[in-house]
Design brief:
The structure is a single chain. The protein is α+β, with helices and mostly antiparallel strands. The chain is built from 3 helices and 7 strands, in the order αββββαββαβ. The protein has helices at about 10-15, 60-65, 95-110, and strands at about 20-25, 35-40, 40-45, 50-55, 70-80, 80-90, 120-130. It is globular. The protein starts with 9 loop residues before the first helix and ends with a strand.
Amino acid sequence: MSRPDSATTTAARAFLALPRTATLTTLRPDGTPHVAPVRFTFDASTGLARVTTRAGARKARNVAAGGPAARVALCQADGFRWITLEGRAAVEDDPVRLAEAVRRYTARYRAAPPAPPDLAVIEIAVDRVLSLNV
């Protein structure tokens, strides 16, 4: 599937709610991919995925360098079941957005995320969903 609403099916929502690690792929300024393991949350009602990180982390720097056109792919897999959420990304440090990201992360993973002094959130406006066996 490649429609954004395919992530809102009951099966997809259940799969994306599992406390799993995913991979986030961003593009370095030279165009090569950077893939990092991450924990994330996804709000099916708004189509927004969130990844908390350090503002100085390579993934955050890649997104920031890409500006408003920065695209990323976030993939959660479990054997032969997987979902990839693609979309435009932005790095945010607004306290309200950070608090919401931390709240959602804590609910999903049953523990607060690391809290470095330069905590930021990568927000992904999901506009494409690919999946298999979900």
